[in-house]
Design goal:
Pyrv_Fd/Flavodoxin_OxRdtase_N; 3 domains; Rossmann fold; Transketo_C/PFOR_II; 25 strands; 7-stranded mixed β-sheet
Length: 642
C-alpha cells in the first residue's frame, strides 16, 4: 500500500507476538503483526502456483501484502540444481506494508538446491520446512554439500521441521488411480495445506480454484484437493508443529472500498482497458511476446467484449508498426515489450514522433544489456526511453511506483498521448509486473474523462478564400495537431517520416522550417501539464531521497525506519520523468543533500545533475533484485551523517 502512515512494529527485526490457546485447547496460537514466507523448490515443483494461491487467500482474508516471485529464465533448468530454483516470497501484515520484506521468517525448501540457494537470506531463528524425501545423498552432492545439512549441525540456529512431504503426499493419494510420479506432483498442494493451517488461511478459494483449473480432469482436481487437505490435517495432528499463527486483517490500512489482489501487469492491462473506455476509442495492442511483458498480451486478449483487439505480430517491429497504424485509424494504439524490444521499435517510435499520433509504448524493464536477465528486474531503460531514437525525438516518460499504481499510470499515459498527440513511454519493470498487492477497485465516476474530438471539418482558409485541411495546424494550448481519421471527406492529408511543412503538412526540406518543427515538437513535450512534485518532509530535513518507479516501496520503508529511529529525512517520488514536474528544481534547491536510489548505474541522477546542476548522490544496484529496506536505510543514514 502507499500510505505514508507508519508504526513501530514494522521497523522491528522480529514480528510482534502474542499467545493464546486454540478453541480445542490442544495447540498454542500465536498472534503476529506480520510474516514473511518464501516457498522455494525446483522449477517443476509449482512454487509460483503455491505462492499465488497462498497470496490469494491472504488477500481475501484482508491482510495487506506484497509479493516477490523469483524464477529462472530457462523453460526447465536441470532438476535439483541451483540454476533451476524457483521461489515466491510473500510479506503479509495486519498493517500497511510496502515491500515483500528483507528476510523470510519461514522458508519452505522442497529440495537441497532450494535450501542452499536461500539459506543466506534467513535470519537466525527463522523456521525452515524441508521435504526430507528429497535430501538423498545424490541430491545433496549435486548442489555441493559435503554432507546433508539436515545432519551436520549447520541448521542448529534455525527452527527446522523435517517433513517427508513426498511420502505423505503419495500416501494421501493411495486411493487414486495415479502413478507415483503423478501423485508426487501434488506435494506442493500438501505444502500449501500445511502452511494454510499454520497461518489460519481460508481454504475455500483454493478448493474452487483447483476444481476450476482441472475441470476437464476431475480426478486430478480431487487428487490435489486430497493432498491440500492432507497437508492441513498433518499440521493439525503432528507434534512437530505445536504452534500455529494468526495475522489479523489490516482493518486500518485501507480506505473504505472493495479490494482485490492484483499484479502490476494485470493492473496495467485493466488500466489500458479503462483508458480506452474513458476515451471512447477501441483499444489495439500490437505486440510480440517477451518476458516479462507477455502477460499484458495474454490478459488483453481476453477482453474483446470491451472493444479490445490484440495482434501477436511476427516481430517487435511489426507489433509497433501495427499499433501506430491503428492510431492513425483512430484507435488507442498500444505496444508492449521489454528492453531489447524497445531497441527494435525505436525507428517506428521516431516515426510516431514525426507523425504526431498518440501511441503508448509500455516497457516492462528487465536486466540487460541484450538478452541479459529476462526474469529479473532493473530500471536501466530510462535513458533509452529518453534518448533512444535518431534525431531530436522527445517523448514523454512516466513510471508507476507499485503494482496497483500501474492502473493509474496507464490512465495517465493515455491522457498525455491523446491530449498532446504523442507517443508516451510507460516504464514499469519485472518487480512491479510480477509482484502483487491489494488494489481498491475504483468507481467509474472516479476515472478521468479522456474523450477526444476528431477533426471533422476543414480548418484553414487560404488567401484565395478556399477552405482546406491543414494536418499540422496546432491547438494553441497543447500544440497538438488535429487527429483526422482516414476516410473523413475533405480531410485527406499526407503522413510519413519526412519532415513536414508547419501547418500544411507538405514535405519540406527548408532549414528554417525544420528548426521550427524540431523546436515545436520539443515545446509540446515541455509544455505537458503534470502535477507538481509532492514532498513528504514532516521534520524539515536537510537530506532528500528522490526516487522513481518501483523503488518507492523500499525507499518509503527505509524512510520509515529512519524516522522511527529519530532521523529527519525528506522523501519525494517522481512519476513524470519527461517532462519533470515544474517545481522539481525548487524542491531540489531546498536540501543540502539529495540521494537518488536506482536499480541502474545512476541514470536519473545523471539527468538531475545535468538539468538542475545539483550535486545529487547516486546509490544504485544492478543485481536483478529490488532494494532491501534495511540496505537503503543504512545508505541513507550515511548520507544524513555525511
Amino acid at each position: 500500500m502507499t500510505s505514508q502512515a507508519s508504526r513501530t512494529a514494522e521497523q522491528a527485526d522480529e514480528p510482534l507476538l502474542s499467545e493464546q490457546r486454540d478453541p480445542a485447547g490442544t495447540k498454542d496460537v500465536r498472534r503476529l503483526d506480520r510474516v514473511i514466507i518464501r516457498f522455494a523448490g525446483d522449477s517443476g515443483d509449482g512454487m509460483q502456483l503455491t505462492g499465488d494461491r497462498f497470496t490469494s487467500e491472504t488477500a481475501s482474508f484482508g491482510n495487506d501484502l506484497s509479493t516477490l516471485p523469483n524464477f529462472p529464465a530457462e523453460i526447465r533448468a536441470p532438476a535439483g540444481t541451483l540454476p533451476g530454483v524457483s521461489s515466491f516470497q510473500l510479506h503479509f501484515a495486519d498493517h500497511d506494508i510496502l515491500t515483500p520484506g528483507d528476510a523470510p521468517d519461514v522458508l519452505v525448501a522442497m529440495n537441497p538446491a532450494a535450501l542452499k540457494a536461500n539459506i543466506a537470506d534467513l535470519p537466525r531463528g527463522a523456521e525452515i520446512i524441508v521435504d526430507t524425501d528429497e535430501f538423498t545423498k545424490r541430491a545433496v552432492a549435486k548442489v555441493g554439500y559435503a554432507a546433508s545439512p539436515l545432519e551436520d549441525g549447520s541448521l542448529e540456529g534455525y527452527r527446522l521441521h523435517q517433513v517427508p512431504l513426498t511420502t505423505l503426499t503419495v500416501e494421501a493419494l493411495t486411493g487414486f488411480d495415479l502413478s507415483r510420479k503423478e501423485a508426487e506432483r501434488s506435494k506442493n498442494m500438501f505444502a500449501l495445506g500445511l502452511l494454510s493451517w499454520m497461518y489460519h488461511r481460508p481454504t475455500e478459494g483454493t478448493e474452487r480454484f483447483l476444481r476450476a483449473k482441472f475441470a476437464k480432469r476431475p480426478e486430478i482436481a480431487e487428487a490435489n484437493l486430497a493432498a491440500f487437505r492432507a497437508g492441513w490435517n498433518f499440521g493439525e495432528t503432528t507434534e512437530d508443529f505445536a504452534v500455529s499463527y494468526e495475522v489479523a486483517p489490516a482493518t486500518t490500512a485501507f480506505p473504505a472500498g472493495v479490494y482485490r489482489n492484483i499484479s502490476g501487469n494485470l493492473a496495467l492491462s485493466y488500466g489500458l482497458v479503462a483508458a480506452s473506455r474513458q476515451a471512447g476509442l477501441p483499444l489495439f495492442l500490437g505486440s510480440y511476446p517477451i518476458t516479462p511483458a507477455s502477460d499484458i498480451l495474454h490478459e488483453l486478449s481476453r477482453h474483446k467484449n470491451f472493444g479490445v483487439r490484440t495482434f501477436q505480430a511476427e516481430d517487435e517491429i511489426a507489433g509497433v508498426g501495427a499499433a501506430l497504424g491503428a492510431a492513425f485509424g483512430g484507435a488507442l494504439g498500444v505496444t508492449t515489450t521489454s528492453g531489447p524490444g524497445v531497441a527494435l521499435k525505436s525507428e517506428t517510435i521516431g516515426l510516431a514522433v514525426s507523425m504526431e499520433l498518440p501511441l503508448l509504448v509500455v516497457d516492462i524493464q528487465r536486466g540487460g544489456p541484450s538478452t541479459g536477465l529476462p526474469t529479473k528486474t532493473e530500471q536501466a531503460d530510462l535513458l533509452q526511453a529518453m534518448f533512444g531514437r535518431n534525431g531530436e525525438a522527445p517523448v514523454p516518460v512516466i513510471a508507476p511506483r507499485t503494482p496497483a499504481d500501474c492502473f493509474d499510470a496507464a490512465l495517465e499515459a493515455a491522457r498525455i498521448a491523446l491530449a498532446y498527440r504523442t507517443p508516451v513511454f510507460l516504464l514499469s519493470d519485472g518487480y512491479l509486473a510480477n509482484g502483487s498487492e491489494p488494489w481498491r477497485i475504483p468507481d467509474v465516476a472516479e476515472l478521468p474523462d479522456l474523450r477526444v474530438a476528431f477533426a471533422r471539418e476543414r480548418n484553414h482558409t487560404l488567401e484565395d478564400g478556399s477552405e482546406v485541411f491543414w494536418p499540422y495546424k496546432r491547438d494553441p494550448r497543447t500544440l497538438a495537431r488535429p487527429w483526422a481519421v482516414p476516410g473523413t471527406p475533405g480531410l485527406e492529408h499526407r503522413i510519413g517520416g519526412i519532415e513536414k511543412q508547419d501547418g500544411s503538412g507538405e514535405i519540406s526540406y527548408a532549414p528554417a522550417n525544420h528548426a521550427f518543427m524540431v523546436r515545436t515538437r520539443q515545446a509540446k513535450i515541455d509544455g505537458i501539464e503534470v502535477a507538481d512534485l509532492t514532498v513528504d518532509d514532516p521534520h524539515r530535513a536537510r537530506t532528500l531521497v528522490l526516487g522513481w518507479g518501483s523503488t518507492y516501496g523500499p525507499i518509503t520503508a527505509a524512510v520509515r525506519r529512519l524516522r522511527t529511529a529519530g532521523e529527519a529525512i525528506a522523501q519525494a517520488h517522481l512519476r513524470h520523468l519527461n517532462p519533470f514536474p515544474a517545481n522539481l528544481g525548487s524542491v531540489l534547491a531546498r536540501y543540502e543533500r539529495v540521494v537518488i536510489p536506482e536499480m541502474n548505474l545512476g541514470q536519473l541522477a545523471t539527468l538531475v545533475r545535468a538539468k538542475y546542476l545539483v550535486d545529487a548522490r547516486s546509490y544504485h544496484q544492478v543485481n536483478g533484485m529490488p532494494f532491501k529496506a534495511e540496505q537503503l536505510a543504512t545508505a541513507l543514514k550515511e548520507a544524513i551523517d555525511g
